[in-house]
Please model this.
Amino acid sequence: MLSLSISTLLLSLCSLNVGGCENYDDPKKNLRTEFALALYQRLAELDNRTNLVISPASISLSLGLLQLGAQGNTFAQLKNALGYSTHDQGALDSLHTVYQEVTNSSQGPIAQLACVLFVQAGLLLSPQFVQHAALWANTTLRQANFSEPNRTTAQINEWIATSLGDGETNGLSLETTDSPLHQVAVVSTMHFKSTWQRKFIFTNTQPLSFTTAEGLILKVPTMYLRNEVNYGEFLTDSLERISVVELPYLGETISMFVVLPSDRRTSLAQIETHLSTRSFPLWSNNLRRTKMDIFLPRFRIQKHLDLKMVLPALGITDMFDPTQADFKGISEQASLYISEAIHKAKIEVTEDGTSASGTTAMVLLKRSRAPVFKADRPFHFLLRQASTGSILFIGRLMNPTE
Model:
């Protein structure tokens, strides 16, 4: 008797609206960092000319939930890529600690992780999976009718807009929801909002030059701040010199790290290959308090990515194959596989951390002898939580006007 082939839809979406160094001896921190950086490097290799932002925390949340219901080689591939097993109680406890720390808003930043399972009416799920999913970063179950793709897409987009709090209900387009085989949608979201520990003064923002990788010189709104920050200059293994500055958010539990090639002739692609669990902790742990002038362009990036193009490079292949995927831990009623893996991320960086409007005032900044960190060319940024080592967002800015 032939088994019924039923697709599972994986969606990972996130939104960011933004305004210390710790020890990395904990192997679990290294595993989380390793997955985040490996994922980013693979995506960066696909297109090294455009702006990019992803939320590794959101993507790993979705993959971890799927691992709860995976078996056989499908489970092994997810375990190897993520670096942990959801069958290990110690790993589960560690992950729950991460989610609790990320969503703890008592110290300033507001971060919200959430998951929802959209389940086709009539599909019987494993009670054990439902029980585990309910404890997995605020996961809920909702019924959907995948034979009505437009209605299902609207239902999913409505939940995403509510979860992200951005009011956008049409951000997602699913090309394959018209197939009667789609029975389950796994959606995870991450929303982060905070202000800088030390705000950029809005009246100090002025149009300054930004040189793209192609040599195009643009005039873009550039924020300015004189402050004492964690800063360092380092050499990569290939002897490229880089500058790293840490800009903390309110409460200093989460920071943005900006990684800038010191030599204008050094491309970001050359630096990306050195973003690893060995180099990045080394850089961040060796920053020194420095009073300096900081110039950072105001920017907004939104990306819609097909994770099926990158996850196989991390060894996750079987879950996309109808003949190889094994998700019997989710439902014994049908053969499930992943037909879509979509990730949407958004980041906006402004003077005070929230959206700003109004006319930018031109000011003449006094010359000073303080060191200068001037992000007037392409750079990397990482949003990381200090206590858990989790990289919440990572990306690059190639052109502030795109």
User: Anything to note?
Assistant: The chain has a mean pLDDT of 79. Residues 130 and 330 are 8 Å apart (CA to CA). The chain has eight helices and 15 strands. The chain has two domains: 5-194+300-348, 202-297+353-397.
